[in-house]
Amino acid sequence: MTLLDKDDEIAAFQDINPSAETHILVVPIEHIRNVKFVTTEHMGLLEKMRQKAIELLKERGHEPEVSKLGFHVPPFHSIDHLHLHVLGGEMKSKFRKLKYESGKMWYRDLHELQADLEKQLKAQQGPRL
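Above: the chain's sequence. Below: its structure in token form.
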């Protein structure tokens, strides 16, 4: 596995079995078991992961708007540590395209997760007077 970038909070690796032309994993240094354990307290970390993903996609000539950023949902994940899949360019097969398709029970799009956490945060804060 090739380390692409690392700081105190996140690391980025080249996936060892890429599903697309570009397939990078962005992982938090802090252990978070999987996407089901992500809370509103992780919103800053998720945004940092998103920004790193966009930077790495752009460096490789991909448009972030048409790339995929997301997580596999248990039990459809292979590693018990949160990792953001960053996919740019053509997918390697129809099966792999389906494996990373938004809206399926096994895959959670980063943007959707961030929107849901934003709603949770607003609900926790209660109505504004």
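The CA atoms of residues 77 and 106 lie 8 Å apart.
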